[in-house]
Every structure is written in structure tokens, then in C-alpha cells.
Amino acid sequence: MGTVSGGEPAKLDIEELLATRLLVQGNSGSGKSHLLRRLLEQSAQWVQQVIIDPEGDFVTLSDRFGHLVVDGERTEAELAGIANRIRQHRVSCVLTLEGLDIEQQMRAAAAFLNGMFDAEREYWFPVLVVVDEAQMFAPSVGGDVSEDARKMSLGAMTNLMCRGRKRGLAGVIATQRLAKLAKNVAAEASNFLMGRTFLDIDMARAADLLGMDRRQAEMFRDLKRGNFVALGPALSRRPLPIVIGTVETSARSSSPKLMPLPDAPQDVEDLIFTPDPEEFTRPIVRRAPPAPRPTTDILAELSKAAPAASGVGGSGEGRPSTPEMSGEEREERLAQVLAEILADPQAAYRTDSVLYQEFLVRARMRRVSGPPMAMGEFRRRVAIARSGVDEETAASEGWVMALDLSQRVSDDLQGVFLLMARAAIRGEACPSDQRIAKAYGTHSARRARRLLGYFEEHNLIVVHTDFAGKRIVAFPDLQAETAPGDPNATDDCEVPSAAE
Length: 500
Prior knowledge:
The protein has 500 residues and is α/β, with parallel strands linked by helices. It contains 19 helices and 14 strands. It has two domains: 2-244, 3-Layer(aba) Sandwich (Rossmann fold), CATH 3.40.50; 325-481, no CATH class. The chain has helices at 14-20, 32-43, 61-65, 76-89, 102-117, 134-137, 147-163, 183-186, 200-209, 268-273, 295-305, 327-342, 352-365, 375-387, 391-394, 397-406, 411-426, 433-440, 445-457, and strands spanning 2-4, 9-10, 22-25, 48-53, 68-71, 93-96, 127-131, 169-175, 191-194, 227-232, 236-244, 462-465, 471-475, 480-481. Residues 18-278 form the AAA+ ATPase domain.
């Protein structure tokens, strides 16, 4: 790994590491990524490696050591399948999550780790699984992401560190702050490399993990970049300061350096204030959050929906109660609530869990009686609503068969599948990439094309083009196909609401 204070080589036992796992800690700029790169380069020829890379820094390993680069901008089913085949064929890879938001990164990493974890026993070969910025995927407390994404990611990280050893998975996790990393994940590591840190709580935890006195924790403030204190059966039986050695590859990003400004040109004002003609053709992305509803409006709606109290006693007789309603009335109210939620233009880009919480709140405000709708049923209704099916098509035999076929894909893909099926049943033009992407809840046209490829791999559709290059999607089981459609069109991207 480098050298110790006396100039002797600092060695790490890879076989021991595979059985005992490793935790790396250090503030930004302390040299964590350099340390991980040194470890990966030195062990590349001895063990299969999988790197969960949130910033795309480790993709340069592919040029020198042949790591396969896996783009995280795929469906969860695709990532799980790739991870399973990675284990079968023993290929080292880098899962790059660059460009995804934090919740998408958590879901992609969880799907990939779970795919590796669920591999068949005959493929349980040893794998070094390196997770950079582990506090993102195993947070100690909930943050701005949805609860189901946090649980999914935390569960995958827990499986990696707690149960992965028997399956050949050796976790190497790196974090900027121990205090932000879930304790049950950090506690499973038996080897530690602690770098520079400044906060008292992180220094205290680092000292505890290394078995050092609390008074010695101050030393972590004085560590230089690339200097770490090592401890563990794969490193040293006593805390040992080491200096990480050089690496053969480099990250695409680097630490900022001072750079003098260029000489200002004479026409600097014209350069800055004269717009580029292309600027007027670029879409304007407005990131301002929607205006909150006034409290008075919410109170007025609640008071209007609340039934009159039947008494004033202290035994509960005076509490408002939800009157019983017929099944038809309940279904009508639920449909209205669902239509209101999906009428929001931004609803297409919100996760199902966020929409579901809003649905439950609105249903309570409407005094809908009976048990709340289950999450699975809600997702199914949202998928059908987003397909834009009309009453005539919904009553056809082809649509009933399409609903049955949609059960073969995961919940998050059903809306896209039914959208394509509706177009085929009605003989309409094939939806564009932008239309498909919005039905899936993304702005990525490339992901839309991947979804069609996924359906085709599972023998659900057949994609072909006419002589003009327009796309046609056929459904063999439905004996129907769409009319030719331009995949690059941008004028049909509105997602129908549930009321349409």
C-alpha cells in the first residue's frame, strides 16, 4: 500500500481482507480516493473487483486494467441482471453513477449490489466490492430522499458488510464522516485506514475503532494528505502510520490548483453580453419549487369536509366520524383524488412513494372511508392512468390481455408498457423517446430506448422501422402494432391525466 515511517513497505494481505472487510475514513482532500486507487491497482491481477463509483472517478481503470464500465442510468432490473452476469463471468467492473441524482444513485447501487448478492451458489467467487462515499448509500439518518430508497440502499449495504463474506463479497467502504455512516454497516469492518479529520465526533469514533486513547484522537487533525493510520488483521495488529504510494492511473477530476487569469481581451464586454444564437433555442428549465397552498385554503377544505359532531361527551361521542359510503361513491372519490395528483405537470417526475403519500393525505381530507389503498394497487392505477387509455379501449379484449402481459414487468415499467400497448391496440403512431421517457419519470431519451430494448429482450415486443426510418413497435401476443412514429419527435410528450 505504501511505506511506514521507517521506509519499509506497508503491506496488505488480500486473502485476509476478503474475510475481514475494510473501512476507510477521511475528510475531503485527505487522499481516500488515492488510497482506493492504490489498493485496486495493486490487487487487480489477483482478485475480481467491483467499484460503486458515484462521481465517475474510477472509470480510468478500464484503460489500464480492463475494468468494464457499467453506466448506472439503467432500470433496476437491467442492473440486477448485469450484476448477476458479472459474477458468473468474473469480470471486474466500475458502476458509474455520475449524472444521477442522489435517490437514483441509491436505487441503482442497491439494485446492483442485490444482484451480486443473489447470485447462484456456484458463482460465489471472491469479489472485492469497493463503495466510495459510502455515507450516501448507508446514511445513519434519513435525509431528503424517500424512505423506500433509503431502506433499499441501506439494506443492500448491510447485506454486503454483514452477510456478504459467505457469498464471496468483501466490502471496502470509504466515507468522509463516520458520524454520517450507519453504525451497523461500519461495525462489520475489521480493518481500518483512518485519514485526516477535524470534527471532534469523527475523531472520537476513529480513535475508538483503532483502540486508541481519546487524548490521542487529536493526531488525526495533523495527518497530511495521503497519510493514514492502519489497524486490522490484514494490515497491522497495532495502529501503524503509513504513507500511501503512487498510482498508475489518475482520476478524471483532481484537486483544484491556483491558475492565473488570462489577459482580458479588448472586446471583453462584447464577448460576455453578446448572446449565442443557440441560447434562444435551448429549453429553459425552471427549478423553482411550486408555491405552497395557503393554510387558510387547507383549513377551509378540512372544515367543509368534516361532518358535524354528534355530542360533546368525553367518551368519544363528540368526535367527528367518517360516514359510511357506498362502494361506487368511494371509488369515485378515489378516482378524483388520483386525477388531481396526476394533473400536476411535475407528477410524472416524482417517485411513486411521494405520490402515494400525497394520495393518502388527500384521501383523508376527502373523508374516504374504508382501509387505505395498498401501495401495489396505487402503482397499478398510476400506470394505467399514465397510459392514457380511454373507456372504449379499456373495454376491449386486447386491453385486458395487455394488462395481463404487463404483470411480467416490474411496477416501475408497467406505465411505459401499457402506453405502448394502447398505441398498438388503437393503431396510433409509436410514441417518441421523449414521450416514453416522461411516462417512466425521466428526461433521458437514451433510457427510453433502453426500456424498449428491455421489453424486446423479454420477448414482449418487436421493434422495427419502415423505409422512412420511423419506428414501429409490434406486440406478438396482442397481434397488433403501432403506426410508424418519429422517435425524435418533441410535440407529443404530454402525459395524459387519469381523467382523460
